[in-house]
Design a protein that fits this description.
By secondary structure, the chain is of the alpha+beta class. It is about 40% helix and about 25% strand. It has a 4-stranded mixed β-sheet with strand order 1-2-4-3, with helices on both faces.
C-alpha cells in the first residue's frame, strides 16, 4: 500500500464512527475475533484504544499484525485498520492495491 492510498483511507476514516473498542485488558481472543468480523464486513474500521498512553501504538500494531491487515494511522487513542475484501463485488475502495 502506498502513501496516497493511506492518505485516502485516512480521509475516509474521518467520516466513520468507532466500531470496536479495545479496553485496558488489551487484545484478547474475543476482541480479535470481533475485530476480524468487523473488518470482514466493513473493510475500513476505526477502533478506540484505552490503556496506558505509551502502549496505544503497540496495541494497534499488534492487532494489525495478528490479523494481517493494514494499520492506516494511530492518532491519540484512535487507530484505523484496513482489510480489502476478498469479494471484489463487495469492495468499498476498489482502487486500493
Amino acid at each position: 500500500m502506498n502513501k496516497d492510498d493511506r492518505r485516502f483511507l485516512s480521509r475516509e476514516a474521518q467520516k466513520l464512527s468507532v466500531l470496536v473498542t479495545i479496553g485496558k485488558n488489551g487484545l484478547s481472543p474475543e476482541v480479535l475475533k470481533q475485530l476480524q468480523e468487523t473488518l470482514d464486513h466493513h473493510e475500513l474500521v476505526k477502533i478506540k484504544l484505552y490503556g496506558q498512553t505509551d502502549m496505544i501504538k503497540q496495541i494497534a500494531y499488534e492487532a494489525a499484525e495478528s490479523l494481517k491487515v493494514h494499520l492506516i494511522e494511530v492518532r491519540g487513542f484512535t487507530a484505523v485498520l484496513y482489510k480489502q475484501s476478498d469479494d471484489q463485488t463487495k469492495r468499498r475502495y476498489p482502487k486500493i492495491n
